[in-house]
Amino acid sequence: MKILVTGGAGFIGSNFVHYLIEHSDHTVTVLDKLTYAGNLASLEGLPDNRFQFVKGDICDAALVDELFARHDAVVHYAAESHNDNSLDDPRPFLDTNIVGTYTLLEAARRHDIRLHHISTDEVYGDLELDDPQRFTETTPYNPSSPYSSTKAGSDLLVRAWVRSFGVKATLSNCSNNYGPYQHVEKFIPRQITNVLLGERPKLYGTGENVRDWIHANDHSSAVLTVLERGRLGETYLIGADGERNNKQVVELILREMGQPADAYDHVNDRPGHDLRYAIDPSKLRDELGWRPAFADFEAGLADTIAWYRANEAWWMPQKSATEARYQAQGQ
Ligand code: NAD
Ligand code: DAU
């Protein structure tokens, strides 16, 4: 197949592009606006005969139309992805996550092209710490932030275009990803790069909030599985049984980096901060036989720390502007 990947210069999209090139015969075109979160350095080393990059906006209907005409499938990662930014300025989230997804759906309808929509577990809201139920495909939507509400809106658009217009789409909702090439605004890279620069990690609130961590490579293998074998119109939840609270993660990072486990600061909490996410991935495992390869979070985290240590040139250009934004918010 000729696959168009939107947002392929971001953290998870670029991981998927590398994964596709290594694990399939498909060719790939990336469509990416190169916002602050996009980085062409994440796509270095890909073969010219199987990879092409197009700089552009998913809201540009003419460009999207031209690209859909010459591809067989689309995997849609492009989004404004950071909760803290959405609390500061929600507008770009509405433009890209809602209008951008709408633009792709209209093109998918015109070209009758296969589309896979990438979404997040945050559309389901949050769970109590002791809730025995995890999120499943039938959990009601209950998003908390401008980011998660625009992702929820985009999911609902996809479902409506499937039902009303017969668009050949699947959806997946994944838990928190970690791994190389993640922007330093996000939790794990922020703390690793702080320690590398002699700064202390910053924990929001008490640090009791739980996230369900999955390595980005496992997200990519799950998406390729759904793209190739998922049932049209279906949603698949992607997770790897990786629940940890934020305090545990910061302590793991500090220990792995040779620092005392309590060498971090508590800072202002995120307004409306979701308490816990947890994915039940049974449908994906039972129906499509998918399994994560990175079962050991501590080992994956150690590899990720080693990657940031070795790739300062990749992350350093964004670090000071990112920290200046956090400082202005007391975080
Ligand atoms: P990211 O912020 O690292 O990358 C987003 C990419 O989209 C960037 O390359 C950016 O330039 C591009 N982009 C933004 N607006 C665009 C536009 N209008 N047109 C074209 N390109 C545009 O995000 P990420 O963490 O890699 O997340 C990718 C997707 O996965 C998002 O849809 C996100 O909601 C979803 N997701 C992320 C996680 C996570 O833990 N990071 C978990 C589950 C789902
Ligand atoms: O669950 C999937 C979602 O995971 C994706 O949809 C989002 O795109 C992705 O950004 C991520 O959202 P979170 O808000 O969970 O991720 P973030 O890395 O921003 O924060 C993870 C947790 O760490 C969260 O509880 C907030 C906390 N945190 C974050 C930062 C940046 C801190 O304690 N300190 C920090 O400095």
Automatic annotation (TrEMBL):
Cofactor: NAD(+)
Pfam family, one: GDP_Man_Dehyd
EC number(s) from the headed UniProt entry: 4.2.1.46
Record Gene3D superfamilies: NAD(P)-binding Rossmann-like Domain (3.40.50.720), UDP-galactose 4-epimerase, domain 1 (3.90.25.10)
Enzyme class: lyase
NCBIfam families with a match to the protein in the record: dTDP_gluc_dehyt (TIGR01181)
Protein name (record): dTDP-glucose 4,6-dehydratase
Organism of origin: Ruicaihuangia caeni
Keywords in alphabetical order: Lyase, NAD
Annotated ranges, domain NAD(P)-binding: 4-302
Family statement drawn from the similarity comment of this UniProt entry: Belongs to the NAD(P)-dependent epimerase/dehydratase family. dTDP-glucose dehydratase subfamily.
InterPro entries per UniProt: dTDP_Gluc_deHydtase (IPR005888), NAD(P)-bd_dom (IPR016040), NAD(P)-bd_dom_sf (IPR036291)
Catalytic activities: dTDP-alpha-D-glucose = dTDP-4-dehydro-6-deoxy-alpha-D-glucose + H2O
Biological processes, Gene Ontology terms: nucleotide-sugar metabolic process
GO MF annotations in UniProt: dTDP-glucose 4,6-dehydratase activity
Keyword Transmembrane tagged: no
Keyword NAD attached: yes
SUPFAM superfamilies per the UniProt record, alphabetical: NAD(P)-binding Rossmann-fold domains
